[in-house]
Amino acid sequence: MAMNSELMLGLYIYMVGVMVLMFQWKHILNILLSFEILMLGLIFSFLLTYGLYNNEYYIVMIIIVFGVCEASLGLSLLVSLIRSHGNDYVSSLKLYKL
Amino acid sequence: MNNKFFPSNFLFILIMVMGTTMTLSSPHWLTMWIGLELNLMGFLPLMNIKGKSLEAEASMKYFIIQSMSSSILIMTSLILYNYNMSWYSMFNHKMLSTMMLLSLILKLGGAPLHFWLPNMTKQMTWLILFLILTWQKLAPLFMLTLISNLNILILISLMSTLLGSIMILNQTNMQVIITYSSISHLGWMLSMIMINNSLTFIYFINYIIISIPLMNMLNNYTNNYTYTLTHKNKINKLIIPSLILSLAGLPPLLGFLSKLLILISLMQTNFIIMTLLLFMGTLISLFFYLNMTLMIIVKSYFLFENNNMTKPYESIIMLNMFSIFVFYILINIIIKYAMTILH
């Protein structure tokens, strides 16, 4: 079984997320939002392939839990970045220019 | 915010260690991914310990890269699962296993995907730099041993050795120099990973043994820039040059031991051109290591100054200096013994 249609649907969402991630040049918050799209595609494809074939839907629960943890971690990092820089522009990251 | 005592750091260290152990001990790609995520979640608060703005930037970059690569890893493993309906008998699809390998290389900071690593480590704390260059590489290196894709691994190892050693030549920042040297050492580790992965971990452990006292002394006695090596300070003129030359891989030291083992194994498997190119890479970086040692040695009026800075690391430094006389024979005996058991 090569590429079934459910997996293609999830992979489509994931690829759209990757495209969205690549074109974020201004705000870091948008990068974190595109990570959420990636996580959505991952949940979707896990639900429709692995969960559906084996009746193991609890795997999706684990994926969701870790996605939420990652999102909250990213938001806390964003807060600490904004507290030290004043904004969340990618262009204000000065580590590259040193 | 600066130098306070945070009891929660014990929790974060525990989560970091447990994540890597979970990755090392799990048979399933999903639990390996969970281990990587746990490792990231424990490590990021440790990066933010001083609350400076550069640390916040570095941790943001690290978070974006690591979560992106682990997401690609789990997605590719799911596609591979759909390809042959099993989590265990994998990697008969060439392109997908290449994709998985590249995501792990992005996690490690191997050569074509290394650009985030020196950007991030500029002006970083030495302890966090040490953790990034050693402990954070353990889990992805272990996962790379499970993927068999020889051609691309050879290409990546050659590129990271050559590129890491060429990029050192123009740098003045100490952390960036150590980072690029670790990239070129990563090339050596990746060269052995398909042939004999126990030698990879011997090399890795030797790299850790060298870099613990080296990074600690650089932390205590220099600034972030290389010209501070020429200033008059209480730096030990015998120990630090020996550690740096051990990173370069000069003969009586520990760094030579791991390079010798890899060299013998590569020659036995007939990768002649590859060994030649790997040694070209280390030869280029040897120039810079010798330059650094010259900067330390030139101002030394007394070679053996008596100071207590090496007190906690004396055993590790002794291991570094005299290991070649003991360990090479020991490892050879062990490998021969293992071979007789296997056959």
Automatic annotation (TrEMBL), chain A:
<keyword id="KW-0520">NAD</keyword>
<feature type="transmembrane region" description="Helical">
    <location>
        <begin position="31"/>
        <end position="50"/>
    </location>
</feature>
<feature type="transmembrane region" description="Helical">
    <location>
        <begin position="57"/>
        <end position="82"/>
    </location>
</feature>
<keyword id="KW-1133">Transmembrane helix</keyword>
<keyword id="KW-0496">Mitochondrion</keyword>
<dbReference type="GO" id="GO:0016020">
    <property type="term" value="C:membrane"/>
</dbReference>
<feature type="transmembrane region" description="Helical">
    <location>
        <begin position="7"/>
        <end position="25"/>
    </location>
</feature>
<keyword id="KW-0472">Membrane</keyword>
<keyword id="KW-1278">Translocase</keyword>
<protein>
    <recommendedName>
        <fullName>NADH-ubiquinone oxidoreductase chain 4L</fullName>
    </recommendedName>
</protein>
<keyword id="KW-0812">Transmembrane</keyword>
<dbReference type="Pfam" id="PF00420">
    <property type="entry name" value="Oxidored_q2"/>
</dbReference>
<comment type="similarity">
    <text>Belongs to the complex I subunit 4L family.</text>
</comment>
<dbReference type="InterPro" id="IPR039428">
    <property type="entry name" value="NUOK/Mnh_C1-like"/>
</dbReference>
From TrEMBL, chain B:
<feature type="transmembrane region" description="Helical">
    <location>
        <begin position="124"/>
        <end position="144"/>
    </location>
</feature>
<feature type="transmembrane region" description="Helical">
    <location>
        <begin position="201"/>
        <end position="218"/>
    </location>
</feature>
<keyword id="KW-0679">Respiratory chain</keyword>
<feature type="transmembrane region" description="Helical">
    <location>
        <begin position="150"/>
        <end position="169"/>
    </location>
</feature>
<comment type="similarity">
    <text>Belongs to the complex I subunit 2 family.</text>
</comment>
<keyword id="KW-0813">Transport</keyword>
<dbReference type="InterPro" id="IPR003917">
    <property type="entry name" value="NADH_UbQ_OxRdtase_chain2"/>
</dbReference>
<feature type="transmembrane region" description="Helical">
    <location>
        <begin position="95"/>
        <end position="117"/>
    </location>
</feature>
<dbReference type="Pfam" id="PF00361">
    <property type="entry name" value="Proton_antipo_M"/>
</dbReference>
<keyword id="KW-0249">Electron transport</keyword>
<protein>
    <recommendedName>
        <fullName>NADH-ubiquinone oxidoreductase chain 2</fullName>
        <ecNumber>7.1.1.2</ecNumber>
    </recommendedName>
</protein>
<feature type="transmembrane region" description="Helical">
    <location>
        <begin position="5"/>
        <end position="24"/>
    </location>
</feature>
<keyword id="KW-1278">Translocase</keyword>
<keyword id="KW-1133">Transmembrane helix</keyword>
<keyword id="KW-0496">Mitochondrion</keyword>
<feature type="transmembrane region" description="Helical">
    <location>
        <begin position="30"/>
        <end position="49"/>
    </location>
</feature>
<dbReference type="InterPro" id="IPR050175">
    <property type="entry name" value="Complex_I_Subunit_2"/>
</dbReference>
<keyword id="KW-0830">Ubiquinone</keyword>
<dbReference type="InterPro" id="IPR001750">
    <property type="entry name" value="ND/Mrp_TM"/>
</dbReference>
<dbReference type="GO" id="GO:0008137">
    <property type="term" value="F:NADH dehydrogenase (ubiquinone) activity"/>
</dbReference>
<dbReference type="GO" id="GO:0005743">
    <property type="term" value="C:mitochondrial inner membrane"/>
</dbReference>
<keyword id="KW-0472">Membrane</keyword>
